[in-house]
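debug: dumping io for the single-chain case to check the tokenizer round-trip. Nothing else runs in this session.
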Amino acid sequence: MIYEFDGMTPVFGKDTYISETAAVIGSVRIGDCCYIGHGVILRGDYGSIEIGSGTAIEEGVVVHAPPGKLCRIGDRVTVGHGAIVHGSLIGNGSVIGMGAILSIYSEIGQSTVVAEGAVVKMRQVIPEEVVAGGNPAKILRKIAQRDREYWNMAKELYIDLASKYLRIGMNRVVGGETPSLDL
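debug: decoded output
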């Protein structure tokens, strides 16, 4: 659902899919060709959220901007299932793993991978082109070519999925008989 709040209305670009079970509230700007998954919460109520083009915000992610500030998520970013983003910046081409936490005012450089379950502390800055993980997050290594290739392929999957959702939609199944599972 898309909600106006306190005079602020979300804006989104062409070919962007926003699940009807997502909550997009207030001062939120979403670019073109994005995927905003089921159960996502984008809270632009006392701060603003900006999401670049070609970005996937996967199921169950919560994004919230600091008071009076901007949470900027760049172009072609992947934010994995169940992540919490309360930071200031995620650079272009970065990946935030499933269940990761980016605390208030944290910054992630471009083309950086934050591993699943990692915790980026308040005001922590993770530089560009590294893999970081752990609690608190530490730099584990530099990005490798295989990382770039894999994540470019994964980003295209979500751009294609957004397009497919927009093209064919979903059909709600109501009542009726449950198909049997003859195993």
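debug: round-trip ok. The helical segments are 145-168.
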